[in-house]
Amino acid sequence: MKIDDYQIKATRERYAARQTQRDRNKRLILKKDYLAVDSPERVQKFLARRGFSPAECTQLITGSASIATTSAVETTGQEEPNALERVLGTNDLMGVAFLEMGLKAANTVGRVWIGVNAGRPMGYGTGFLISPRLLMTNHHVLGDRALARTSIVEFEYQVDADGRLTPTFSFAVDPDTFHFADQHLDYAVVALQGNAFNSGRSLTDFGFNPIIEEEGKAIAAQFVNIIQHPDGGLKQLALRENQIIDVLDDFLQYKTDTAPGSSGSPVYNDRWEVVALHHSGVWKQNAAGQILARDGTVWTSAMGEDKIDWIANEGARVSKIVASLRAQPMSDAQRRLFDEMMAMGKTPPRDATEETGKTSGSQSREAASSGASVKCGPDGTATWSIPLTISIRVGGDGPSASVATPPASPVIPAQPPAPPAPPPSNTPNSILAAAQKELGKRADVLAVRMGYVFKDGWITKDRAIVVTVRRRHTPAALKEASIDPLPLTFQGLPVEVTNPTIRELIMATQKPATTEAALVADQSILRDEIKYFPPVGAPPLKQFVNERMHVIAHVSPDHGFPVLQDFLIGIKKRLVVGMYDFGAQHILKAITTTTSHKAAFQKFTMAIQHGEDTGSGTKANDLTDEEMIDKLKLALGAKFESAWVQIGSVNGWVAASYHIKVAVRDESAFWLSSGNWQSSNQPDADPLNEVPQKRTYLTKYNREWHAVVEHEKLALTFQAYILNDFQQNRAFNPDEAMEIPDLLLPGALFVPAPEEAAKPFKYFKPFDEDRNFTVQPLLTPDNFHDVVLALIESAEEQLLIENQTFNSPTDNTDQLKELVDAVLAKQRAGVDVRIIFRVLYAPDARANITNLVDFGFSPDSIKVQTNCHTKGVVVDKKKVLLGSQNWSNLGVSNNRDASLLFDDEKLAKYFAEIFEHDWANLARQNIGQESLGVELASAADPTPAGMERMSWKDYQEML
């Protein structure tokens, strides 16, 4: 709910003014005297809409009629206890169709991004479709037309049955076509563009809610249902948790014990007719006037509005909104849209006999007009078979001759059909469903899913129920805290208990806006959602270069910085850099020492992603990006220029990361790498030439693959693309970054096991040759996917992949899925496929390995490696790919990354040897200690002893 001070104040005043009336209503509700709560006029309209005749309405209101409710297969006229509650919706028992209709209604509800700027909204709201083109929300959400022009509505922001985010579809708000709003009733009705800008999907696919102008859709004492995106979060349904306690001229007020509303949410009756537009509420306060949270503490904005202890909700009555809209001056085109909306909400005409009074009012029920069957009992009870059967006893006489059976659909048999055979109870799906129902009730359980037993840190073939808890405890700690342990088995399957993945931890603890910003790499951002375009007249990428060049291939930590330092010392006039992160002070010193004292030096141009990537451990002394920029400006003055590259699905140059690592020197040579200019990637050391050599560098610093290439044509190609990135983003001024927590990881995660420390190791000399090479430059979002797909499909004997990220595809990750499908096809064809990816945190590694095995990969072909940061592929020891593309959804598609593909047997064998070394001596089939959990901390929080701090930007680079 987007809090609006004006609406909160007005709602509180209305609530206070109606205290006496509300107390009276509550007393009658407790007495179950439901038809006496609201006014007789409104009750009559309510009953009439449900098919009761005027005479029957009068008798029910005065108490001279009784109601019996049966199912369609029960004996005619059999009276059920609490029948009136069933008719009014005050009984908790609902038919299955209620849920089916609710799911259809949920399709029409979307999350409103208010005033999007630089890919981020000012806030969130909820809205719902009321015609094929129009959406209703609050005045305080989209009441301002100019703000509406920069807003979007996103549908299907929700999780599926497996707890995974579903693909979403976003539509631009079109206020110039239709936009009318009113502050008192707090409504805004706006048009949306007809097709989603991220997929072309039609708005009509999501349906709409018919808007019914006539009154009588709901009365006091009824429960209502709300579908919403609370605090901008995932779509939720508050089913029958709000009870109407007062009906004002323009508003409904409803109490809630558990479920607050969200600004712009539809409020439904039990027929899933929209009765109100939720807009505000009344919160609980302490004696000091402070807002209270649901746990009794004083509420702060950091908690999110969904944590407020709301004591009442309020919505504007739809009938009043329609009357207000009808009075608005509209153009002919706008009036047509309004008339279309109203036509969609028209109820079917009543039977003509009702208007003439020629038959009993009983026959005029809406059930009859929809083809229901009617039977007359000897006691004067008439029974209609609709989804629920409503029986009215209007007097003691027998059936009247005027009660005739209307044309009906086939009569439902009097005896119930044979029950369907129960599904097998021992299938994995049925066991999982039972486990989710039973174990998922616990407050400490975040997720229950089907997985595998992990033994000695590695996946087995044995299935298990995997339960994710907020924090995993030892048996002793559980006993001390009086927490019941989870069972060791469930219906014959072992139960494995894990800590949350980092993604799950963020989703469980952070506000939706923070969650969305943190997990931007999880999103499916399509090519047409970003602003990127290649430089005009740039050299072609879709071809190999076969020419003479000087190539120095090398790896870190072995001999990375010495080669980079020599490259930087060689600068004469110009340096152009595209970089994700730059914080290492020894690299800064190498640049400034070289360039500041050379009169011929002209310009250092850098495109870089904004954000911080400092922490503890190997990067404890690194500078933030802004500190680095300031020092370069101070050292080089006008000879230095930089641009922050804009990311995001709305107005972003690229999707989630400007992840490239390329430096071009004097338009004639370039350095390309998998690693940033950070101390973790480029330590100020030379392990290759130390005497004696020490293994610790390999477990402390990242494994990176690099290349320095002296070749003018290739250098100018990369320079053209980086300068285009710079030019198109130099005017971008990032807003103050949303604070995303740092990660606190137990230091024990980074301590190598004794057996690992005892393994042999080798540091590799650079590959340095000046001759003809065949090479192709690859860039995302340009040509990476198609070229790499062809590379994989060319493998005949061996396919070696060493990448910090090798994700199993999920829904809507088509480009990643194509690549991973091709790798799997090679494994199934008998090719020696082996994959190394990075292990940072055991629950994350468990989840990915489980998904890869479910996808079809053999676990024997996979190993994990601490500090693996390279992104390389070797095919048949004849071709090698090195660069910066992660094998993630956006890494292979719409982030900015750069690689080189060499068709060169000698160079491929150089990197194949390094892969084999890492496979044998650094990688392992053990995800590590699952008992160790990650925590979150703000930048201001100190790093506790025994913990390592990782910035979110550093973690995001793995996504």
Could you explain the architecture of this structure?
This protein has 959 residues and is of the alpha+beta class. The protein folds into five domains: 1-32 and 90-346, Beta Barrel (Thrombin, subunit H), CATH 2.40.10.120; 36-87 and 348-396, no CATH class; 428-498, no CATH class; 529-729, Endonuclease Chain A (Endonuclease, Chain A); 757-921, Endonuclease, Chain A (2-Layer Sandwich). 27% of the residues lie in helices and 25% in strands. It has a 14-stranded mixed β-sheet with strand order 25-24-23-26-27-28-22-30-36-35-34-31-32-33, sandwiched between helices. Strands 6-5-2-3-4-8-7 form a seven-stranded antiparallel β-sheet. Strand 34 and strand 35 (879-883) form a beta hairpin. Helix 3 (40-49) crosses helix 4 (54-62), helix 18 (585-595) runs parallel beside helix 19 (625-636) and helix 23 (784-793) packs parallel to helix 24. The longest helix has 18 residues, at 712-729. Residues 68-90 and 347-424 have low confidence and may be disordered.
